[in-house]
## 1
Amino acid sequence: EADIYQTPRYLVIGTGKKITLECSQTMGHDKMYWYQQDPGMELHLIHYSYGVNSTEKGDLSSESTVSRIRTEHFPLTLESARPSHTSQYLCATTQTVPNTGELFFGEGSRLTVL
Amino acid sequence: GESVGLHLPTLSVQEGDNSIINCAYSNSASDYFIWYKQESGKGPQFIIDIRSNMDKRQGQRVTVLLNKTVKHLSLQIAATQPGDSAVYFCAEVTGANNLFFGTGTRLTVIP
């Protein structure tokens, strides 16, 4: 099993605050992803990384940014949070070899912006 | 918050009955197909996968069927239990681990 940790699990903040959602994995997987998901809705890819110093935007436009300075760490940052950013953010990892495509997900960070 | 995407289709079944969850995919070049289960408040978890060169694969109480002719994938759950209540997503994997999720189906098991 993959060990992937997201913090905080729950966060309530005011409009205009800067926040960083942390995602760490201990499996040495090269690929990491951020998905946004509203309750009972689809998963939408917002960022992904294929390795250190590699970051790409996903299918859904997002005002967040990511960085990948270390293999095990893939934080997501919102410079100025707004109520429209209220959602659940899921981090996931996978490895290139073997190429099964299976994603391992964290428990998610549920963000509420007032 | 602002909604992203569509509300999920739902399926309700009686406890003990079999469940069939369907999924249509778009890319005929997909290498793998994966079913995920997402319980409330948690991240999706892997259930079962199937390679594109297979038609059927069985796991514990679950069977996945792949029909490449009509680009259709299904997940069958035998003897559905209350613990099976969750949202089920299919995903297709192409190329270098590019994974695309389907819409998802919410399964509710009625005791």
## 2
Amino acid sequence: QQQVKQSPQSLIVQKGGISIINCAYENTAFDYFPWYQQFPGKGPALLIAIRPDVSEKKEGRFTISFNKSAKQFSLHIMDSQPGDSATYFCAASMEGSARQLTFGSGTQLTVLP
Amino acid sequence: DAGITQSPRHKVTETGTPVTLRCHQTENHRYMYWYRQDPGHGLRLIHYSYGVKDTDKGEVSDGYSVSRSKTEDFLLTLESATSSQTSVYFCAISPGNDEQYFGPGTRLTVT
């Protein structure tokens, strides 16, 4: 049972453009929503995270938008750069069970120079 | 990779053989996790540990066992490897807040 659905599967953006990746969740008990960035051959790296008590969080060029009523959250990458080309995963966790993460299926982002 | 090492980094083994993957951390974090990564599935939790000798099952635990005899080491064992266990395995650690930090991964091929 996939509790976090991620789209699109792949995304191609021109340098300087905005990359947008979307995730939807089912379990309303989720209360922590991180995004991970993964380069080929490397482990996922925590990029940015949000809790449902805020609707937006920004760190540099990366912004999470959160819609609690729609049970959706998205990652926006402003001024996308070729170095941002990677696979991005959304995830969610809840209190208990050691805060285990439930991941989306991933989005492969390619930023063209 | 946040003070996490995984060994081996690559392994090829035959169906039916036992395999043990090791995760070692230098952060003294309480929580440790094993995930597998497969195309189209993201990362899925196999087992996790919330302390020495304290472990529990995750979403895809069938065919896997774990042990944690020291804070710094978390072992994942495939008792009898199958081709369906060909995957990339990631260890993660957490100090007990929400954040998890991942190791570099082990690519396992079962022939």
